[in-house]
Write a structure and sequence with these properties.
Uridine Diphospho-n-acetylenolpyruvylglucosamine Reductase, domain 3; binds flavin-adenine dinucleotide; about 500 residues; alpha+beta; 20 strands; 7-stranded antiparallel beta sheet; Alpha-Beta Plaits; 18 helices
Length: about 500
Amino acid sequence: MFAPMPALERRLTDLLGAARVITARDALLAWECDGFTVHRALPRAVVLPESTAEVQAIVQLLHGENVPFVPRGAGTCLSGGPTPSVPAVVIELARMKRVLHVSPDDLLAVVQPGVVNLDLTLAVQHLGLHYAPDPSSQSVCTIGGNLAENSGGPHCFKYGMTTDHMLGAVVVLPDGSLARLGQNAGPRAPHALDLPGVFCGSEGTFGIATEIMVRLSRDQESVRTLLAAFATMTAACRTVGDIVAAGLVPAALEILDQATIRAVEASVYRAGYPEDAAAVLLVEIDGPRQVVDEEAAEIRGLFLARSPLRIEEASTPAERKRLWKGRKGAFGAMGRLNTDLYVLDGVVPRTRLVEALDRIHAIAERHGVLLTNVFHAGDGNLHPNISYDGRDAAQTARTVAAGREILQVCLDLGGSITGEHGIGSEKLDYMALMYDPTDLEVMARVRTAFNPSGLCNPGKVLPTRNACAEVAKWPKMVERVLDDHQRRGGDR
Ligand SMILES: Cc1cc2nc3c(=O)[nH]c(=O)nc-3n(C[C@H](O)[C@H](O)[C@H](O)COP(=O)(O)OP(=O)(O)OC[C@H]3O[C@@H](n4cnc5c(N)ncnc54)[C@H](O)[C@@H]3O)c2cc1C
């Protein structure tokens, strides 16, 4: 069915030159997985385009040869999105990293997809502007990956997810043609159909964004970060509810549990969090100085009503940076706990956080896995993290099984199987737990409109038609993990 590799490699090399076409097995190992290390698969080849025209030429070639392909940014995805599910050519966009245009008065920028999230803010900060969505991976992940995943971050509680900051995109469709979704329309022009909104969150299955127009935000006059440490997780979660019930809308409301605090404090991300606390709550408020002063006083009062162990307040950039260092570095700090980390991503209504965490702890205990929690408490977006040794198949299978039960708890409590990390390959089998067949069919039809050949990132997001039956045969993912491990001869 596929064109033989040597012929394909020759034609890709003709397009890009040998240095930007990778086919050697050892070199391909670098593209074997993303942050969801349970799913590993070598691409058929990796290509490194530097322009829209090159992406178009590559896709036209692969489409003509009926060869599947997978877009990739920085590979920080946590659900297997850029990992090929079939032998595919990975098209890595990381070399397309130019900020093409900034219009401070229109509050917008046009960027190539490989621009790193934080680099965009650094490029416009002298104008008193920033790009608001701030995944904790923001120093590495790309705007293209953010668009494909509809990524969130601590400040999305107030400012919204990527989709709220996405104005348009130039997209190479899976047949190699070029579409402009919302592009040229400007920030306030209505779209006949909100195609940028449809494309956002399509996880690389609708085509490849090669130019992206984003909304920029003005820096606020005053920003303040408050920390409250509590003796119980319940007190921390209830304080989040108190703040929202008081009508306050902080920029961020984040919680770290004790296991996370201890991992952070033992790492290079040490932030001075109290290690005896069961939970640390970080609240950031921003706006006009007087409003921020008043809100800070009100939040302190709400903290005190829940008897915190400690309160800290940071108003200078350096103090704020220290308080955020631990939160932003939390996943990195967990590298100390074991060789691999399974970062889960589920949502529950904010009012059910305490119950959800109790049930999640019980699941972890039953499966004997090491659990830490760091989460966007304001959004009810949980990140239960399981540290495990991926070289141990039984431990990996227990981890995956516990993860599946945790996501079922999120659904049982009226939530979702993803808040911001997407479905990818990780949660493919769970889609039928959340959506009925008609919902899935509608989604499949939308995908077919963009990707009729199915060549663009196959095997992601949407399960096959008989998914319900497949889920009934659970634990399918666990079986896959064990099979894969056996195929590798019990080693990685
Ligand atoms: C330590 C850590 C912290 C994280 N924190 C957060 C967080 O706070 N919030 C959050 O939402 N996520 C978070 N993530 C997840 C991840 O960083 C985001 O999903 C991010 O948007 C992925 O960007 P990337 O450039 O790495 O994309 P990749 O991982 O390379 O790809 C992600 C998906 O996008 C597709 N894709 C990539 N580029 C394009 C393109 N140009 N056109 C079309 N499709 C494309 C790929 O096919 C894939 O399906 C975190 C990850 C890590 C490792």
